[in-house]
Amino acid sequence: MSSAHDDGLMTGRGISRRCLLAVGAVGIPGMALAACSQASPEEPAGGSGTSAGAGSSAGAGSSAGGGKPLAKLSDIKVGEAISATGPDGGDIIIVRPTETTVTAFSAICTHEGCTVQPAGQELDCPCHGSVFDLKGAVLNGPATRPLRTVAVKVSGENVVAG
Ligand code: FES
Fold first, then answer.
1. Model-level pTM?
2. Ligand 1 in contact with 128 (CB < 6 A)?
3. How far is the CA of 9 from the centre of ligand 1 (A)?
4. Within a 13 Å sphere around the CA of 95, how many CA atoms are in the beta-carbon half?
5. 131 lines ligand 1 (CB under 6 A)
6. Which is higher by pLDDT, 131 or 15?
7. CA–CA separation, 148 and 145 (whole Å)
8. Is the dihedral angle over the CA atoms 1, 122, 68, 111 positive or is it negative?
9. Is omega for the bond preceding 142 within 30 degrees of 0, making it cis?
10. 57, 59, 100, 129: which has the fewest C-beta neighbours closer than 10 Å?
């Protein structure tokens, strides 16, 4: 959705402006770049450009607080799941196990990152055939890890982050 903030910090070579400034200050490019390489995975947001555009929370407003409707509760049958867009803009699966409760998972398959789809009482990955149950657990590989949980709750007639 919005990757402008990410791009603003990075050059065409994938080196952050902060790192380039560090090179100038230190005067030893090899040392500064090594330090930048080590620091990149630890940057909390905007540091990785490989999150399919969903990782940036800069333009998401107050969605982390739980107010933004992700789905209408009435659109999810009890005991089933739907695909939706999560609070961070990524694909999620919302499950309604009971009349008044919901759970959600990232729709990104833990095998190689394809988008899983609801299929009755299961979540199917179209790429290599992994199957997950409605609690996100693996029923069939090649995936071996459960889907990542996304915090959601019922708020009135909507499902919201939380
Ligand atoms: Fe889902 Fe391979 S990416 S099974």
1. 0.61
2. yes
3. 32
4. 24
5. no
6. 131
7. 9
8. negative
9. yes
10. 100
